[in-house]
């Protein structure tokens, strides 16, 4: 499963099991963050953002107390992208744990390092999100232990100091995580008879462009739709059990009445970007978006 040259420690085959990570800890806590997403990242004027903003500069809608002055009208004001974004809890982790609760306003010299740490921590927290799911979805004890080991490496990095975090090879770690997620996906989907020769629909494949397609009559369970384009696809009433949605683009996908409660590797930003209703079933730790409509 893993490259023999992996620089990260291999899990012994049998070790005491570790409790699964509570993904509620990966939910954003904006009250304890120095608005890092509104400063560290840049954005380009588009359907998602009404203006251009350079990375490393505060958004003009940001108040001195790190709140957003247009929070209640973001979509109406052309800032849909802000309602979709999710930091996986990296904002409060960097603000409070790595930088001790001292903001970039109080200590401007820390600004650059804090923003770099946030970008790295966000990637790592997203990996934690997937690893938590991999650990509990797999029936392979070796894969489960591998998830625990990778998780501990990440938790050590984001729980240490900024220099340690920034010295981590995030891309190398990402490659390790990706391998594990693919193996767990294959294992879970296989139980739905949707791999190899039993694959039911050749259109349903990784990186497929299914934008705008009506998929309501397709049998989707167990499909591998990793990194696929499902922009405005019609999935109303569909059963997406064991469908691998890792990195799938769900912008404006129609999810009314769809069952995603057992989909694989679904994230909050994907749901924030899609359209659902009260009948849409989600995993327990993914919340229905607070906004209504597209
Ligand atoms: S519009 Fe509000 S939420 Fe979006 S980047 Fe600016 S301050 Fe942050």
What does this structure look like?
- This protein is an all-alpha fold and 294 residues long.
- It has two domains: 23-189, no CATH class; 193-294, Pectate Lyase C-like (3 Solenoid).
- It is built from seven helices and no strands.
- Residues 1-16 have low confidence and may be disordered.
- It binds iron/sulfur cluster (SF4).
- Iron/sulfur cluster is lined by residues 38, 59, 61-62, 68, 70, 79, 82.
Q: Largest sheet, described in full? A: none
The number of helical segments is 7
Q: What's the helical proportion of residues?
A: 25-40%
Total separate domains? 2
Which ligands does the model contain, each kind named once? Answer: iron/sulfur cluster
Query: Runs with pLDDT <50, length 5+?
Result: 1-16
Order of helices and strands: HHHHHHH
Rg, nearest Å: 20 Å
Q: Strand tally, please? A: 0
Q: Give the strand content.
A: under 5%
The pLDDT mean sits at 91
Q: What distance separates the N and C termini?
A: 40 Å
Specify the structural class. mainly alpha
What's the overall geometry?
globular
Question: Can you lay out the helices and strands and say which pair or pack?
Answer:
Blueprint: H1 80-84, H2 90-98, H3 111-137, H4 141-158, H5 162-167, H6 170-190, H7 268-273
Compact overview of the structure:
Helices cover 31% and strands 0% of the residues.
List the keywords.
single chain, 294 residues, mainly alpha, Pectate Lyase C-like, disordered N terminus, binds iron/sulfur cluster
């Amino acid at each position: 499963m893993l490259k023999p040259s992996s620089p990260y420690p291999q899990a012994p085959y049998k070790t005491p099991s570790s409790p699964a990570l509570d993904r509620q800890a990966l939910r954003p806590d904006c009250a304890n963050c120095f608005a890092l997403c509104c400063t560290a990242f840049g954005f380009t004027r588009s359907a998602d953002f009404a203006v251009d903003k350079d990375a490393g500069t505060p958004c003009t809608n940001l108040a001195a107390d790190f709140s957003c002055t247009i929070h209640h009208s973001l979509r109406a004001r052309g800032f849909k992208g802000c309602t979709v974004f999710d930091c996986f809890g990296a904002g409060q982790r960097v603000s409070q744990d790595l930088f001790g609760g001292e903001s970039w306003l109080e200590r401007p010299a820390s600004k650059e390092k804090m923003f770099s740490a946030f970008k790295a921590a966000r990637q790592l927290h997203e990996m934690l999100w997937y690893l938590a799911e991999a650990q509990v979805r797999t029936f392979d004890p070796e894969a489960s232990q591998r998830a625990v080991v990778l998780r501990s490496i990440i938790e050590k990095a984001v729980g240490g100091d900024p220099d340690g975090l920034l010295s981590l090879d995030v891309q190398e770690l990402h490659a390790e995580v990706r391998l594990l997620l693919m193996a767990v996906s294959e294992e879970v989907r296989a139980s739905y008879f949707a791999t190899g020769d039993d694959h039911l629909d050749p259109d349903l494949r990784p990186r497929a462009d299914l934008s705008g397609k009506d998929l309501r009559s397709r049998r989707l369970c167990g499909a591998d739709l990793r990194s696929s384009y499902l922009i405005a696809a019609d999935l109303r009433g569909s059963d997406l059990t064991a469908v691998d949605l890792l990195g799938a683009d769900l912008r404006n996908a129609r999810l009314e009445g769809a069952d995603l409660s057992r989909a694989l590797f679904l994230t909050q930003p994907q749901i924030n970007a899609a359209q659902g209703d009260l009948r849409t079933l989600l995993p327990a730790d993914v919340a229905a978006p607070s906004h209504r409509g597209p």
